[in-house]
Amino acid sequence: MTYAGDITPERAWEILTEHPGAVLVDVRTEGEWERIGIPDTSSIERPAHFIEWVDGTGTPNPAFGTQLEQALADRPADAPVVFLCRSGQRSAHAAGVATAAGIAPSYNVLDGFEGGPDAFGQRGSTGWRAVGLPWRQA
């Protein structure tokens, strides 16, 4: 089953601010959250959820589904869930798994938190941070 769609970081923020029950799930690793930063959802008074898709060694998180269901237990059934990772790859997989589990609508944020590498191999020219959405150091 496919997820609801790929959306820009700006559209993700619109969904989060316009839908009272909408939830952000960041599926990066703990190390990424600590070193690179995290989305700051304090202005919408709904915390983001942080659930690793894989750990720092690239090993899949076998508890992802269970952790996601627990994190979303209080979410209204039809409230959007927005998935975010570094560049939009892991979050696309997570949105697909969530949709298959009946968590819908689930969206993937294109370019993730910091986007893919540019011509010089550097990240950060696209994504959540680059477009100026709220974030902070963990």
TrEMBL record:
<feature type="domain" description="Rhodanese">
    <location>
        <begin position="18"/>
        <end position="125"/>
    </location>
</feature>
<dbReference type="InterPro" id="IPR001763">
    <property type="entry name" value="Rhodanese-like_dom"/>
</dbReference>
<protein>
    <submittedName>
        <fullName>Rhodanese-like domain-containing protein</fullName>
    </submittedName>
</protein>
<dbReference type="Pfam" id="PF00581">
    <property type="entry name" value="Rhodanese"/>
</dbReference>
<dbReference type="InterPro" id="IPR036873">
    <property type="entry name" value="Rhodanese-like_dom_sf"/>
</dbReference>
